[in-house]
Amino acid sequence: MGERYLKSIRLLAECMQGFERLSGQHARACGLTHAQFDIIATLGNTPGMSYKELGERTLITKGTMTGVIERLEQKGLVERTRSSDDKRSWFLRLTKAGERLFDEVFPRVVAGGAAVFAQYDDADFDRLESTLAGLKAVIDAVPQPDNNHR
Amino acid sequence: MGERYLKSIRLLAECMQGFERLSGQHARACGLTHAQFDIIATLGNTPGMSYKELGERTLITKGTMTGVIERLEQKGLVERTRSSDDKRSWFLRLTKAGERLFDEVFPRVVAGGAAVFAQYDDADFDRLESTLAGLKAVIDAVPQPDNNHR
DNA sequence: TATTGTTATACTCTATAACTATA
DNA sequence: TATAGTTATAGAGTATAACAATA
Question: What is the CA radius of gyration of chain A?
Answer without folding.
Answer: 18
